[in-house]
UniProtKB/TrEMBL annotation:
It comes from the Bacteria. The gene is rpe. It comes from Megasphaera stantonii. NCBIfam families: PRK05581.1-4 (NF004076), rpe (TIGR01163). Substrate binds at S7, H65, G141, F142, G143, G144, D175, G176, G177, G197, S198. It holds the Pfam family Ribul_P_3_epim. A divalent metal cation binds at H32, D34, H65, D175. This is Ribulose-phosphate 3-epimerase.
Length: 214
């Protein structure tokens, strides 16, 4: 089942509630929330209070992508805010097994994101306990970048890894440079959660953009 997950990084930050209501009404399946701390990535966005304030404005799931150095600090707050998916970066988690247990025990689905240079094999030990692997198809930090072609191999490897441990329920998400030109190839590679920032929020007709991605 394809899920289209618009990233609010490319929304109008002065009108976030209206922006998420707009994409929900135009067919989005979840809202992708890029939390950045200015340390793990060279950009700073928003944190738990803003996510909590947005929650009541839409009913589709919230998919939080934590590009932060110390994700554990935010897990309980995100659960309280009503977030459904929490994805942490492999590169930011020296105690990844423990962080994943923390997310699940807080009642949320857990994912791990991999930067372009981080191999899928780094997740072999935890693959059975994941709900999602997020393949970053750009270097994280900014919207509107160009899709890195070797990400397609990583999407295939991530799907194969999950299947090899019998975790067929877990999904592969792709994030960065997903648009009308790249969407077919990411689906063929096995991604079912498709994050799109500029391709949705930057489109004149957002309903058509979401339908085209699906
Ligand atoms: C980048 C973020 C993405 C970003 C994608 O670090 O994780 O979610 O918003 O933007 P586009 O779809 O424009 O590449
Ligand atoms: Zn993201």
């Amino acid at each position: 089942m394809i899920h289209i997950c618009p990233s609010i990084l490319s929304a109008d930050f002065s009108r976030l509630a209206e922006e998420i209501k707009d994409v929900e009404s135009k067919g989005a399946d979840c809202i992708h929330l890029d939390m950045m701390d200015g340390h793990f990535v060279p950009n700073l966005t928003f944190g738990v209070p803003i996510i909590a304030a947005l929650r009541k404005h839409v009913s589709i799931p919230f998919d939080a992508h934590l590009m932060v150095e110390h994700p554990d600090v935010y897990v309980d707050g995100l659960a309280k805010a009503g977030v459904q998916y929490v994805t942490v970066h492999q590169e930011a988690c020296p105690h990844l097994d423990s962080t994943l247990q923390h997310i699940r025990s807080a009642g949320m689905k857990c994912g791990v994101a991999l930067n372009p240079a981080t191999p899928v094999s780094s997740l072999s030990c935890v693959a059975a306990q994941l709900d999602m692997i997020l393949i970053m198809s750009v270097n994280p930090g900014f919207g509107g970048q160009k899709f890195i072609p070797y990400s397609l191999d990583k999407i295939r490897e991530a799907r194969a890894l999950l299947d090899s441990v019998g975790n067929t329920e877990a999904v592969v998400e792709v994030d960065g440079g997903v648009n009308a030109d790249t969407v077919q190839s990411v689906k063929e590679a096995g991604a079912t959660f498709l994050v799109a920032g500029s391709a949705v929020f930057g489109a004149a007709d957002r309903a058509a953009a979401i339908a085209a991605l699906r």
